[in-house]
Here is the input.
Amino acid sequence: MEKENSKDHFLFLDLIRYLAASIVALTHYEIYFLDQYRFEILTILAVEVFFVLSGFVLAKQIIYVVNGKKFYNYKIFLIRRWIRTIPPYFIAIICSTILLGYGDLKNLIKHLFYLQNFISDTPSYNFFSVGWSLSVEEWFYIFFPIYLMLMCKIKLLKENLIRNTLILLLIYFFLRLIFEFEHGWGENVRRSVLFRLDSIAYGFLAYLIRDQIGKKSILLFFFIGLIFFIHISSNKTLLNYSSFFQQSFFIITGTFFGTALLILSRIKINSKNIQTIFGFLARISYPIYLFHIIFLTSMIKFSFNIGIVSYFLVVNIFAFIFHYTVEFSLLKSRPMYS
Here is the structure.
């Protein structure tokens, strides 16, 4: 299984992972230091890219787990994801608590167990603001394979992963429709684990249909999404007050980035140098996303603004050091599938 996954690696998506992390880091600098929200929509969309990308690149492992019908492989899947994601997250949480405090013990425990935004992203003290998206990811790892395995036990739905994924997306569409929030949409819906467990499934679905969808359909979805994003970018209050655009946001972002990944995954890169560079950028993306917010809050706390270029360079250097001193050995220790 491991060797097979390495052959099925979509190299160009490594660059997308790095660009998404960089966009979040750079736009947060503008928000925190310059109090400018002109590019806030880019931060929002970059996180949606992470969600869809996760579903796409993890699809082969999830399919293997579901089709294998072995709890052992599901356990290995979780262990592999947790070794990859949790230790760096804990280190980031510890750094944040040292620099900013953590409110009370209950709040800290919620953050440690990815519960701070399980229902609503309104922790008593938000000392690690980027953690909400990581909570969505972690609970997806637990929930989604179980959901698929249970659905596959139903005779009419057996082995039909595409249909079962579409059913989940439809369930979540109606769930958000029923519990519509006129105010606090960002905190109560967009950043809520309860309402966002379908976000990563769009990437999984894109992987499933990658050989079944034609170029015309891909371009159509891509064009619709592009028009939608241009419209909400030029009318920044739409996502705060328009129920239609709030409900449409999740479907449009999921299908748009899903089709974008389909296009990009078909690009072949033969240059060894480019492969090495893209692979390196992908490896430092997670530390950039985790720790950039700590650099920003530290700079604010100690009134030390080194400028956006120097800040971004320091974050990248730190991410490089962190990956090769902490993550590298952890990734090598992950167990193999049976």
